């Protein structure tokens, strides 16, 4: 069974992105082993002087999780037409490494709108040489109206798009 590290980009305690990943994990737990990383706020602020030679223990642990995973899913909202600062910070700590290089990756932007943040996330991950395709990226606009508080999808179109995404992502991980 392949291990998937899901990185939640939201800092909110009541994150729809977390509920979305928990939904995906529940739907695929017979096929994929999920590790959900929802702890970006505990990664120290990026310091280029420490990144290559003396990274903090939280950064070392995060990089190790990325490196050991068979695949990565980043599920994030868009904040002010960009990716959240905590997600950007965590990614910046990985720039001096190759942990994302050729790593099978799925990118989900689930937000009120999300277009600009989704474009930015793809550009950043392309720069880090993560391995993803158009089929392993998904923009879900209006997410709050498409998933219930208990974490059930309420929009059939979104459910269908997620099924296609998971199928493509699973193929990429194989």
Topology:
Layout: E1 2-8, H1 16-28, E2 32-37, H2 48-51, H3 57-68, E3 71-76, H4 85-92, E4 105-111, H5 115-127, E5 137-141, H6 156-173
Parallel strand pairs: 1-2, 1-3, 3-4, 4-5
Could you explain the architecture of this structure?
The chain is α/β, with parallel strands linked by helices and 174 residues long. Helices cover 39% and strands 18% of the residues. The protein contains 6 helices and 5 strands, in the order E-H-E-H-H-E-H-E-H-E-H. It has a 5-stranded parallel β-sheet, sandwiched between helices. Strand 3, helix 4 and strand 4 form a beta-alpha-beta unit. The chain starts with a strand and ends with a helix. The mean pLDDT is 96.
Largest sheet: 5 strands, parallel
The 3D shape can be described as: globular
Topology pattern, helix = H, strand = E? EHEHHEHEHEH
Rg from Cα: 15 Å
Low-confidence stretches: none
Task: Give the structural class.
Answer: alpha/beta
Task: Give the rounded overall mean pLDDT.
Answer: 96
DSSP strand content:
15-25%
The end-to-end span amounts to 10 Å
Spatial strand order of the main sheet: 2-1-3-4-5
Keyphrases for this structure?
five-stranded parallel sheet, 6 helices, globular, 174 residues, alpha/beta
Task: Provide a brief overview of the structure.
The chain is of the alpha/beta class and 174 residues long. Helices cover 39% and strands 18% of the residues.
């Amino acid at each position: 069974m392949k291990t998937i590290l899901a990185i939640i980009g939201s800092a909110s305690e009541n994150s729809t992105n977390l509920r979305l990943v928990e939904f995906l994990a529940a739907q695929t737990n017979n096929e994929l082993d999920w590790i959900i990383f929802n702890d970006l706020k505990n990664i120290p602020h990026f310091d280029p002087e420490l990144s290559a030679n003396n990274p903090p223990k939280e950064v070392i642990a995060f990089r190790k999780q990325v490196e050991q995973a068979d695949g990565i899913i980043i599920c994030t909202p868009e904040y002010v037409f960009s990716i959240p600062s905590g997600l950007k910070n965590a990614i910046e700590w990985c720039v001096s490494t190759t942990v994302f290089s050729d790593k099978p990756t799925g990118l989900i932007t689930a937000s009120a709108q999300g277009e600009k943040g989704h474009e930015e996330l793809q550009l950043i991950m392309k720069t880090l040489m993560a391995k993803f395709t158009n089929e392993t990226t998904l923009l879900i606009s209006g997410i709050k109206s498409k998933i219930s508080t208990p974490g059930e999808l309420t929009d059939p179109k979104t459910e269908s798009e997620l099924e296609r995404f998971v199928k493509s992502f699973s193929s990429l991980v194989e």
